[in-house]
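Onboarding guide, step 5: your first structure request.
Type a short instruction followed by the sequence, for example:

Predict the 3D structure of this protein.
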Amino acid sequence: MDVGEQPEDHVLVMGRLAAPYGVKGWLRVTSYTELPGNLLDYSPWYLRRQDKWQATPIVSARAHGKGLVVQLKGCDDRDAAAMLTGTEIGVYRSQLPAAEADEFYWSDLVGMQVIAQDDRVLGKLDHLFETGANDVMVVKGEQQYLVPYIEGQVVQSVDLEARIIRVDWDPDF
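The system replies with structure tokens like these:
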């Protein structure tokens, strides 16, 4: 497998267990999904423990404020919940709904080469993040670039097969 390629079915980090909630083993959840409740659409969750992904069923869950709280199988008290604090929550790529035509998940873009209009290679897409105004691509090459992800303006094309993102971006900006 080449650098930047990803297996067809790999675990995607979708959130993390934030902190114990109460004394009966419940945990607060930080969701990386657009709507926090969407994380509950995936079952089972996979928790990264000692660098291994372990399937973990959800016993109960509910919205709490702007986030979620959950109780996981085998997590019956505050001490057990505290041991899980900071644990990443993942789901297999195959658990996600298929992307529509001309749509893709951020994880599909990670590792793609980013090329400016003058054919200068800026580097590989390391990750994306939201700013409120627009999403931003973090491109790492000889240096790091923060490139706005604005389709049609900055992002000119995304070729999933060739693993190339073409951008109208001045690397000297």
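Each response can be followed by summary notes, for example: The chain is about 5% helix and 45% strand.
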